[in-house]
Amino acid sequence: MKTLALCLLFVLQVSGNRTRYDDILDLEDGAICPRGTWSVDGTHYLGGDECELCYEGEYNDEEGGIACEMCPAGTFAPDMGYWECLKCPPGEITKETGNYECFPCRKGQHSPSEGGTDCMDCLPGYYQDVEGAASCKICPILTYGDDVGAIACKDCPSNTNKEGMTECKIVCPAGHVEKDGQCEPCPAGEYESEGQCKPCGAGTYSDKSGSVSCDLCGAGSYSAEGAVQCVECSVGQYQDKSGQALCEDCAAGYYGPNVAAVNCIKCAAGFFNPQQGQSSCQECPAGTITDIEGQLACQECDAGSYSISSSQCAECPAGHFSDDKAAECSPCAPGYYAPQPGASGCKPSPAGTYVDKEGAVDTLVCPEGHYCAEGTVTPSECPAGSYCPEGSASPALCPVGTYNPDALVSSDAECIKCPAGKYCGEEGLSAPSGDCDAGYYCPAGSSTSQKVISPAGNYCPAGSAKPTPCPRSTYNELTGMSSLVDCKSCPEGQETLVEGATSLDQCQDVNCSPGQYRDPVKGCISCPRGTFSNIDNAVACRPCPRHQYSSDEGAVQCMQCPVTAFTWSHGTDSLDGCIGPVIEVCTGEDMTGNCYRYYDDNMNLNTTIRSAKVISGEFELFDKNNQAGYFKRISERDGPVNVNELGNLSNLRSVKALLNDVFCSLDKGQQFHGSIRSTSKSGKACINWKRTPLAHKAEPNHYCQNPDGNRLRAKPFCYISETETEECDIPSCIWDMDCYTGNGVQYRGRVGRTSSDYDCQNWNRDYPVIHSYHSPEYNWAGVGEHTFCRNPSPESEDRPWCFKDTFWTWIDIWDFCDIQQCSKDGFDYYRF
Description:
2% helix, 74 strands, Plasminogen Kringle 4
């Protein structure tokens, strides 16, 4: 029945995978050759190149084929016209291509799946006695196979219970081993493993023969190797785990009263155990205790206590005492006392002590801050104005010149020196006696109201701690004066140079010089930093104008900030207050050696420089004088740099400050990236841009910016809250707008006429002049859809120019523009 099914399958495969000769006869002239056929050009022409069937062992799976291919190994085509090769059935193979039939595997081999290309030998323990098999047969019991590719198994009388054996031997059941050709069980205390009897390990046992494993000894027991049963732990021992080889001794402080214990018991309070492995604990002897469980030793009762049980010490009652380790307390002998419980001894009554209850005398002398008269029962507080050291029989009075407002004072050091301006005229005062008299002054600790008379040139109202000097332009010739009215004024037009003048002779004509101003009371005063005066007898100093500073007192004029710097406001008091480019250079690496700071934009260096750091702004560093040769650009963000680490820049001979969007804004201010301002024009603090609606455009900092170039008349601004904006007072840049720098490549101003008074031609147009200076190729020079002067040819021209927008000139088609070169004398660098 199986053979019939395979035949039917073959017929279905053949009829479904091929084109027959009759199918070709039905083709029309010019038709595409069907799958399973071919022609020279893939089409069918009657009487010419007609479609032909692929030969046996070949196939063509595409229409319009011009050739047939060989069936691959593992497949076959039994007839002509196949477009898909058939897979060899299980048990048959083809090793090569182009087969029209498959070949059966020989005996001792098999091919388990369709499409096989090679037959496999049967493994040891298996055989195959027919050809064309899909699988091998297993050797039955009483046989074995010890070779590959067997066509039959060998007899094995010893093998009584297992198929697929590869050798002839006895196979014993679990728990048994072969001995003299017989299977015998492993004895008790052993178990079978890998055909051998092995002794049970320590902590395990086997109490019957024929075992394949050993059982664990339970908690509270143990065993040695090869045990047939477990042994219980002895008293004083325990074992809290299964499968152990030994029991553990109970630790000191514990005991084990029973056999087979899984844990030990702590010694109770009042008992102890100093050794391991004990079955009981000992009770603490008299005078000692243990007040917690599990103790190795007893603790002695402290002196002043005794043991009322083996677990508790108690204080000796008042009038009794004890040494340490006492079982009971002893009463104090006559003449001794113990006023409180817990005494370790009784002491005789010293002088100055007191009795506080019958039969007991206080062991302490009279305490500090108290005094104890003869027969005192309770110490008395030391009163204000006095002090009482320990053991005082009566208060000691604070000395003259001091006082004490508090009770309970124990030392004369706590008597307070009489404050300046007052006096303390007797002993034992609790407050100063009163104010110093008018016309006198009293230093701290004065004992009289007229301690020191007011000297000439001064006056002392009542309660003076020191004399008050007569102000400038007044004097006083007498001592003991008590009021400002006692100071006489200098004649009109005169003043004294100091306070406390003592005669008319000290009144002099005074003329304040430049750098000072005249105060009506204090006289001539130097102008503070950030101000100046340039006239005699100025009534006030003037603040330095914007873009100037004064770093010293007494300035007669202000210093100009570096040309490339500015100030936010008037009154700048140091060079550091000038905002502009600053670079520091040093003769040693890592900013060591002699260091110098430069501020302007054209600087030659006269010594060897090995390191540099931009303090603010951006600079170009040149290896030749006058800003020539190889250069490297650095900014304050780069931090300190060593010259030998800047690529080809081996020497540093000159530097140039870059006047860019760090200190001022160009165009719409969108490129401004300075960190010079974090407050708005009204002085309100700028919040971080990451908290604003423009967080996706702005740098995440607090500085003024214009990240989209569209806010507040295209000036840098900031958010003063998450919804409110305000303009910042960032100045506008003048260079390359009102004038040009260098060769004019950076000029972006709006001059659109030549020096010869012609309009400029649009850069992106070719009439009337045809040229090649168009954007975007020349965007770097600022050309574009406009008529403003630019310099896109810096290799040949040295200033901005443009093509003339006229048809009436044919020779001079271009001209320079009438734009001034930026200079320190002709232009400010910033506009506010």
